[in-house]
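Consider this today:
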Amino acid sequence: MKRLLFFGSLLLLSATMAMTIPAAIFNWRSTTHDFGRVAQNKPVTAEFSFTNKGELPLVINQAKGSCGCTGVEYPKAPVMPGQSGVIKATFNAAALGAFNKSVTVESNAEGGTQMLYFKGEVVKEGTAAQ
């Protein structure tokens, strides 16, 4: 009986500790962006805003585009709890046609790797939406 009580208490303690481990947490304004129609050879930039809703500083180790046609800028300094940041993805709209791209964000945030997405259609200049 003592063993059962001991292991039951240990299990309850472990579960309680697992729920209270502090973490950094991304709270994205949006993880997708639709450019619609964009003019050929006119780079476009999507901004993905976030707030760190966790209890620890959020450190982005790396953010990279799914291809060489996408440049990515991200905060290099830790984003403190309650503070905000922006990841910018600039797409080189050289090739005509529809595009669907992604940005992979590696950080210490809860949930592991995060994915951001953007899409649109590159059209000849003069036919893009204004």
Observations:
- Residues 2-19 form the longest helix (18 residues).
- The radius of gyration is 21 Å.
